[in-house]
Known about the structure:
Blueprint: H1 2-9, E1 12-18, E2 24-27, H2 29-33, H3 49-52, H4 55-71, E3 75-82, E4 92-102, H5 110-113, E5 123-131, H6 133-152, H7 158-173, E6 178-183, H8 189-195, H9 197-203, E7 211-217, H10 221-224, H11 235-242, E8 246-248, E9 262-264, E10 267-269, E11 273-280, H12 296-299, E12 305-313, H13 321-367, E13 371-375, E14 381-384, H14 386-392, H15 403-408, E15 413-414, H16 425-434, E16 437-443, E17 449-460, E18 466-475, H17 477-524, E19 528-533, E20 539-542, H18 544-552, H19 563-570, H20 575-579, E21 584-585, E22 591-592, H21 598-605, E23 609-616, E24 622-633, E25 639-648, H22 650-685, H23 693-725, E26 732-735, H24 737-747, H25 749-755, E27 758-762, E28 770-773, H26 774-791, E29 797-806, E30 813-822, H27 829-834, H28 842-845, H29 858-862, H30 874-884, E31 890-893, E32 899-906
Parallel strand pairs: 27-29
Antiparallel strand pairs: 1-2, 1-5, 3-4, 4-5, 6-7, 6-12, 8-11, 9-10, 11-12, 13-14, 13-18, 15-16, 16-17, 17-18, 19-20, 19-25, 21-22, 23-24, 24-25, 26-28, 29-30, 30-32, 31-32
Amino acid sequence: MQLEYILGHVSVGVAILDSTSLHIRDINPYMLALLGESWCHQDVRGYRVDEVVPEAVRKVALPCLHSVAETGQRVEYTEVPYEGFLEVRGRTYWRVSIERLPASELQGAHSLEALSLEEKPEYVLLVLIEDVTDTVRSRLHLNAIHYISSAIAAPTSLPLVLERILQALHEMVGSRRCAIFLIDHTVPSTEARISGYEEFQRTLPDQPRTATVAVHKGIHPTSQDWHPPINKRILLGRVVKEKRTLIITDTSTTPNIDLPFLDEDGLPYRPGSVLCVPIFEPRPTGGFSRTYNRPKEHTAAADTVLGTIEVYHYRARGFPAEEVKLLEQFAQQAGMAIQHVRLLSSIDRWARVARRNAHQKENVMQAIPDGVVIYDPRWRVADTNHAARQLFGWSDDVIGLPIFQALARSKAIFQSELAHIPASIAELEQRALSGQADEFKMIGADGQPYTMRCSYAPIRDDVGDIFAFILLYHDVTESVAARERIEAEVVARTAELAQRNQALQQAQAEQELSNARTALLLERLPSGVIQVSVEDATITIINYLATQLLQSMGATLEPLDDPEEARKNAIGKNIRQVLHSINLYNSSGALIPFEEQPLYKALIHGQASEAELHMTKSDGQTIYLLVNAAPLRGPDATITSAILVIQETTRIKALERAREDFFTTMAHELKTPLANIRAHLSALLARDLQWTSEEQFDFLQTADEQVERLVGMINHFLDASRVEAGALRLELEPIFIPELLEDLQDRLEALISSAHCGLDIVLPPQLPAVLGDYELIMSVLTNLLSNAFRYAPEGDSVQLAAEPVFAAQDHQITGVTLSVTDRGPGMSLEQQMAIFTRFSTFAAMSRPSVDRPGQPAVERRRRTSRWSPATGLGLYISRGIVEAHGSKLLLKSSPGKGAIFAFTLPVFVSPYPVMRS
């Protein structure tokens, strides 16, 4: 049991095999975890070895197992490379031992003890496997570093170092297909600073950089001489930008990346996965021999990328962290080798440059027109040129003097600006290290005024130590004077521009306000406004109402359900195309072509005109329009566009017709009783006629009835005016519905009998009193019943019903609904909308025909006043009376199914409490 427990927790794989059949008799968890994904979670005891191990392992392991089983000689392999875990760990190394033992010596194996004597084997194979990857990798890594370091010492170390790096990668992680890319024409930062290569590069025009495959393994010949430009299409271009390792586990997801082709039996093959590690320029380390500190920007390169190490695989797979880490370590060695070789190759060039500079120093110093003073690290004068000596009035005896003593011997006079010049060595060094410059005015040794700019710069050796300082005195007298003049002009110009800008802003604000007002005016105008360009007859401005008018007239302005969007879409359309399907007619009914319309006259002839036109829609409705057009002219008096104003006058025309009908009706209604009165009075006043007292009484009674009729008509008109003005006065009182309907029936007795129609009154047994104006409610019911009798078929009956209204909460009666129902011709929806308007002529226009069956005879109609022409005010006044009572006059009707008029009156609530016995 202790052995079982130990084997279950050690990091060594243990397996016990039947030596004859190679069946697995026992296996510990560590060994089981090394099997494939399909076996590591199963009990493999009883399976043969060739059934559970991968094919690559089976080919190597089975001969060894059979050999040990037959010979009984123990075998041990100390460093067996295995690439079965490349995706998670890279290449791994194992120590494997196989030993044949008698089965009787393994008493702790439960699987053997469970077997019978016949099944128990005589010998078993004990297989031990131990992971020694870390140990082997450490040794290989040390060997690789040794090989790489020895190669760096050689003069031509770069190809050798890169080859050894790829070989080390192959040995340690099994990378058989890899390459190292280098950027062409790169120079390490240290060499560039010393040799002036950076400045030289800045003077060259921008050239596209390329990369070279320095060394490779497993790359197809077509890609070995590949020199791609460095951009985002190659991994090196992305590394230069992102400064980090890139991993592509599946290159099919990045088809825009160009990769070298792998060699597959002589055929090119695109890699399935790539690991790309940048090669950075090594950062210099170590201190300085002097007390001066190296500036921060020179202590390390700014992550300069020299190239990349790229590892490829045929298929898509991941890369373990150990493999990435090893590759990054080798990339550091590659960076050191590249820098070392290139620095060695440039030593001679530096020496030549130094010798040439030494010979040219004196000539250059003297040729410089600016004053140059060189100080040693302790700020003592080391050298000066001729221009500096003339400026300060120095002689050769200033050599070796500290800077402030040398300035004290100068014949130049510094003005107050000298206070801005550093007064201590520490401040001088700080300015030199930071690259600052001072500008001051002075009187030179020759007595002339100067404005000088003093620049400070340190001089470093090849290891970065400061061994001198240079002060450059540049004469900027003329440029400063010009700058001061320009600054003064700029100040004046700025003030002028600020003033103009303020005026422009104010004008812009006013223009924006004017535009906003114009836009608001266009949207609020009760007329449609369209501006049309004279150049191509396209719409440049159109308001919301114009869009609606054109759509209602049948113009194709999409979308029809969104006028605002249609308005935007109409801009830019040709006005002829918009109006081509619309036929307009004048007052006489003649078709008006586009060439005779006001818009054409304004666009072509520059004439402002107006026209009253109309059109008929597809549903038969006529639309009346008042069209105005006027030209807009430019500064040169040419016509640039035209304004078209469209106002729909359909309602105005309808009102005019209603007014004419009303006055015609009123004149006719007033004329008949007046003529009757005049005829009777004239008969009474005739001297040649003698009338009896009974005849005179009949004449006067008839005249009195006509006067009463005139008064009623006038009161009718006055009631309509009060309803319209909202000045209808109510005399509210409790009304008992049965009494009201009884009184109504008495008043309409003559009307009911003459109409040859019956009146059915439907009244519940008990109804509460309602609150209202008795006479006004009586007039409403009279009007509704008169209309019902007018349109009800002869011999039919009209129903007058009262129905209580209950509250939803407590079922108490809150009101009483009065309704009048007839089975006449009914009304359409359009007629229902027009019937309640003032001066509505619907009653007169839709009065039943004389020949319609069921109507009274002509003689009977003439003897009754109810068949007189309608004034169109009855329902208008009735609705006003009902609304004054806080209710609504409702209408329910359809063609051929009669009509129902109904309104509700509230229940009368007594202000005094009800006394109960």
